[in-house]
Amino acid sequence: MLSQKTIKLVTTMIKAGNRVPEIRKTVGGRYGQSILSHHDSRNWKVGNTELFTLSSLDNDALNLMSHIKSRGYLVSYGKGKNGSESKCSLTSIFFKHKSAMEVVRNRGEVFIIDATYKTNNLGMPLISIQNVSQLGGKFLMSTPIAYAFVANEKTETYLWFLKAFKQAISSCSREGLTLVFVTDKCSALMNAIEQFFPTAKPCLVSGI
């Protein structure tokens, strides 16, 4: 748990335009490890990310969803109030390919969840979830299952993503199977997994 003094320091540095590595170095930690993860720092910085406006589901948002659907993906989206304004904003777009459900049905036990950046001109992180299995081969193979463009990497965002994922695989996942989620040390994601998949086994790695 971060102290109020540390939170105030981080907030001040963000407003001053400091980069994430500079913030983590200033905050410090123990044994050469910062007490603030890269993901936590970045989540503070993306708090003011511009969102799609839903006045008519903005042309950019409509075009993106139409393009994704045209490629054979099933699409769902999340929306929320934009600050104090009454109009809504599109905050997240979840999409999965129909063919991926057969993979989940046959070997849906181990999944890798990761987020990447700079994939679009809106600066929205892209979350991906992939299945990992050695079934039918000599080596581990990863298969993309689902993706989501999101406004940030906060716990509530990951909860929304995991809910959409769980609904997507509900018809093809094997009952009684203990899922394994491979992630990096993102506290928001770990909290969301613990809340939404309490029986799942976490596997933390670095550099995914």
Automatic annotation (TrEMBL):
Q: What is this protein called?
A: MULE transposase domain-containing protein
Where exactly are the transmembrane stretches of this chain?
Answer: none
Q: Where is the MULE transposase domain?
A: 111-204
Q: Name one Pfam family in it.
A: MULE
Species assigned in the record: Mucor saturninus
- State the source organism's domain of life: Eukaryota
